[in-house]
Amino acid sequence: MDELLQEFISETQETLEALAGEVIAWEADPGDHDRLDAIFRFFHTVKGSCGFLNLPRFERLSHAAEDVLSEIRAGKRTIDPATVNAVLGIMDRIGQLTEAVASGAALPNADDEFLLAALSATGLLREEELPLDAAPAEPARSGGAVAAPRTIRLPLSLIDQLMNGVSDMVLARNELARKLRDRSADPELDSAFERLSTCVADMRDAISKTRMQRVERLFAAIPRMVRDLGRDLGKRIDLVLEGGDVEMDREMVEMVVDPLTHIVRNSIDHGIETPEARRAAGKPEAGRLTLEARQSGNQIVIAITDDGAGIDSGRLVQKAIVEGRLTPEAAQRMDEQARLDLIFQPGLSTADRVTAISGRGVGMDVVRANIERIGGVITLENQNGSGLRITLRVPLTLTIIPGLIIRAGGLHFAVPRAAVVEILHDNNEMLKIARIGGAQIATIRARRHSLIDLEDVLGLPLIPQQAPRAIMVVRSASGAPFALGVAAVDNHEELVIRPASPLVMASGLYAGMTLPDNGQPMLLLDAGGLAQVAGLAQGGEAWEAPAASTAEEQGRVDMIAALRFEELTGERRLLALSLIERVEDLDASLFGQSGSHAYVRLEGRLVPVAGGPYRFDSGKVAALRLRDGAREICYPVAQVCDIVEMPAVPDLVAMHGLLSGVAVIDGEHLEVISPFALFATLPDEPVAEIARGRCVLTDTNDGWTREILAPLLRQAGQEVLFGLPDDGAIDPADILFCSGADADFAAAITGCRVVRLRASPRPAEPDDGSIYRYDQDALMAVLSGGTGRMSR
Amino acid sequence: MTELYLFATLAGTRIAVRSQEVEAVVKLTDISPVPGTGAHIAGLSALRSRVLTIVDAAALIDGQATPADRRSLAIICNVAGHSYGMMVDAIADICAVPEGELPLRGRIDPAWACFADGIVDYLGEPHLLVKLARFIEGAALPQAA
Predict the structure, then answer these.
(1) A139, A428, A666, A783: which is deepest, by most CB within 10 A?
(2) Residue B64: per-residue pLDDT
(3) Which residue range is the domain that position B112 belongs to?
(4) Rounded to 5 degrees, what angle do the CA atoms A262, A266, A267 make?
(5) Chain A contact for B30, CB < 8 A?
(6) Is B140's CB within 8 Å of A510's CB?
(7) Partner-chain residue, chosen from B32, B53, B136, that has the shortest CB–CB distance to A522
């Protein structure tokens, strides 16, 4: 009997959960006979079973609901919101009763009559309203429940037992593997063992899948909630659920239910406006709430999007200032994201009044804490006035996480990888450790962190060691990141985490435990707990947060973006990114040389090339184009590597030469190019000055002009034009080259400078304005607009 | 219904444990310490794929942690879904006692008071009937305080 009752309870609860969404859908589309049938079947089953189990109240309730539904099915009744409400009420009551039976509590009897009355009072059909679509329900039913996969119900303990069994198997396999390795190799034995190994691994995978559950279950309660809240608040909401078939760990689903519910409530209460307000804002009357789940790597991403009012970060800041959490100066320095993040402050809410639904200040801080406790991340994308998107990223499973194995005081511990920001050795130059008043402060790249030694916190002996200690920057779920000193970081592994006993958890230091293949249990450290036990400021977070962010900003001022590249000579160097206008591949043929200076022809100009003349083997040369505001340099490199953050002042400063110092990036020592020296080495009179301009060669048919003069001019960066342009579009700045006597004429019609070239070294007459055509200096002087003689 | 009892020695005192509470008795091998917890938590030990929290019950009674070389046997029990190993000095026997549980007589040491349920006579000697779960629940209390 007890077993039957248990069965009944769990079955009823499960069906209720699944049906909640159905009823809402049915209300939206009353003609949907499949759904109606499903609901009808539920009541019918309940009625049948409870008659057998002698549960008269269940029977009365379900009987009444069944009656109403069968009338609807027969078309004798219409569906109106009141009916749906009444049916939902009965379902809720059955749920409560089931709960009560399960826990053996007393069953409050008061409201049953009221519910039944509500049900019978609703819309008995008047003849003329007979709906047209009240077709017999039977045909529709056949199409209904077809695709449901066959399932059986199993007690959780059995699955856990299976899991344990498989873990045992894995351990036994590992031991066997060790033993086999000690013996001489026997291929036959090895291959048999290999097969066993594979089987065990497959088995483990399969069993882990039993832990998975569809996200649908997470969504099951949402439609009902949205509907009820919407009605209570007089808002119209279109709910869209996507990705219900994504699977995640059963425990995870349970952990996410509460935060998700809270966010949805918030969205409806504060986010989505009333129909009037929405109309006024030019939005459709019905708000849109979208919940979507998808798997991304080993994470589940759940996004809750509404098209409501969003968060007014200004008001949030104001409220924080009024409540004394924030100084106006600190608020000034905050960026938009930091302002938005205020919503995660305990007790701070944008709600003006406390409603039954939300706004009680138990809010987003709890949501975030819950999400972060399971290793998740919550992010906001706010568009003030037009919506809010909240994204939850949670690990696929609680049980397997990537972790670091660390050593401290002769013991091994695990730390979740997600909690570790970076790891440094304590002899790293970027790290400075200061001891003051008993506290330790680690300064890493101008950021100060509280430093605690794991041995201190755990009360372990600090074992002296030769090797440098490792300093990990650890991010805790709540509070600022801190530096944790450990003897060494040994390994990186995927860890199967299991809960530790309450005795162990009571210390607050651990998040769980794991049993690695060596069979030695290992504890998983809880970063937040460590900080708390170590007495690092946690309560003052509200005050520290803005201060910390400004410290970060100061840190950022000290760091500048730099391009890491490989020189033609092979060294890897850094150059401040702000100087670099662009990076491009140039034809090697564009590079030229004049005396000791190298130039490259770019867009009709000669641009000096840094570092002297080069010879290029390949056809294309990667080059950096630098600009100091006025002047430009081309810097050919072998290869552009990446963009990194480098300290504005290099770690090792050299005041002379092309290099301003050495910076250490990712453990690599890189020389930093001094932009000052780079531009200072430019020829004083930049070629670029001469290089601008256009030369018009009038003697288009002359071989010398074409083959000798034109290339020379081009090389000097001039644009060369043969013959006067047909449209006569000649710029007064153009220089006309001609050899004939038509020079004066040309000068007259164009009004620009005309250079007359002569073939003989000597001028034909004393006042000749012409230039000997091989007098390069004079020619160049003309180009630079300087002292060369020219015809007026 | 005569019940089976496990008779053992704990902190120099003869104790009896109802056999329903006992899952197994194991010889302790490696114990990984759990720093940052009380002396009564000896550490973690792996029993095949299960991880036991080893409770040094003697430390709860007389406040002295059992030295590592005297850790020999543990009674395994399951409390609230977690497996624990209760360290004992020695195991005597497991058998049924026809006369059953007798009420406590005399003034019992306050250290034992919260763990003892009664007396079980075995081979003419009184054995203190203890409930293992109490050691675990009781152990959590000083932590919580």
Answers:
(1) A783
(2) 76
(3) 4-144
(4) 120
(5) yes
(6) no
(7) B32
Q: How far is CA A754 from CA A506, A688, A724, A751, A780, in A?
A: 95, 22, 12, 9, 14
| A764: contact with B, CB 8 A cutoff | no
Question: CA A427 to CA A471: how far, in whole Å?
Answer: 10
DSSP, collapsed to helix, strand or coil, labels residue A371 as helix
Please tell me which of the candidates B30, B45, B139 has its beta carbon nearest to residue A503: B139
Residue of B nearest to A499 (CA): B82
The residues pairing with A720 across neighbouring beta strands, listed in sequence order, are A695
**Dihedral sign (CA A498, A501, A503, A505):** positive
User: Would an 8 Å CB–CB cutoff place B46 in contact with chain A?
Assistant: yes
What is the distance between the alpha carbons of residues A553 and A556, in angstroms, rounded to a whole number?
5
pLDDT of residue A106: 65
Partners of A757 in beta bridges: A771
B67: contact with A, CB 8 A cutoff: no
CB pairs under 8 A between A and B: 78
Q: Token pair of A606, please?
A: 């000669």
Task: Say what the pTM is.
Answer: 0.47
SS (HEC) of A724-746 = CCCCCCCCCCCEEEECCCCHHHH
Measured between CB atoms, does B44 come within 8 Å of chain A?
yes
Q: Is the pLDDT of residue A122 over 60?
A: no
Would you write out chain B's pLDDT as a tens digit for each of its 145 residues? Answer: 567 888 988 888 888 888 888 888 888 888 888 888 877 888 898 887 788 899 888 888 877 777 777 778 889 998 877 889 988 888 888 888 877 788 887 787 877 877 888 888 888 888 888 888 888 876 554 443 3
With an 8 Å Cβ cutoff, is B143 touching chain A? yes
CB contact under 8 A, B44 and A167: no
DSSP-derived secondary structure letter, A207: H
pLDDT at position A425 is 86
pLDDT in tens, A754-783: 777 777 777 777 666 777 878 777 777 777
Q: What residue of A is the nearest CA neighbor of B137?
A: A503
Which of B34, B46, B50 has its CB closest to that of A504?
B34
Q: What is the ipTM of this complex?
A: 0.84
Q: Is the CB of residue B64 less than 8 Å away from at least one CB of chain A? A: no
**CB of A156 within 8 Å of any CB in chain B?**
no
The string of pLDDT tens digits covering residues A293-325 is 888 766 788 999 988 888 887 887 888 888 777
Tell me if chain B has a CB within 8 Å of the CB of A171. yes
Residues in chain A with CB shorter than 8 Å from the CB of B84 are: 501, 503
Interface test with A, best of B32, B44, B49, B60 (most A CBs within 10 A): B49
DSSP notation for A249-303: EHHHHHHHHHHHHHHHHHIIIIISPPHHHHHHTTS-SSEEEEEEEEEETTEEEEE
Q: What is the predicted pLDDT for the residue at A745? A: 63
pLDDT at residue A60, rounded to an integer:
79
Q: What is the CATH number of the domain that holds B10?
A: 2.40.50.180
Reduced to 3 DSSP states, what percent helix, strand and coil does chain B have, rounded to the nearest 5? 20, 45, 35
CB contact under 8 A, A506 and B53: no
- Over the stretch A690-748, which tens digit does the pLDDT of each residue have? 445 677 777 777 777 777 888 777 777 677 777 766 655 666 667 777 776 665 666 66
DSSP code of residue A706: I
Hey, is B7 helix, strand or coil?
Answer: strand
Candidate from A143-157, A366-380, A474-488 with smallest mean pLDDT: A143-157
Which chain A residues in 518-547 lie under 8 Å from chain B, judged by CB atoms?
Answer: 519-523, 533
- Collect all residues with Cβ–Cβ distance below 8 Å to A589 and sequence separation of at least 6: A619
In single-letter form, the type of residue at position A729 comes to A
Domain count along chain B: 1
The predicted structure's pLDDT at residue A298 = 67
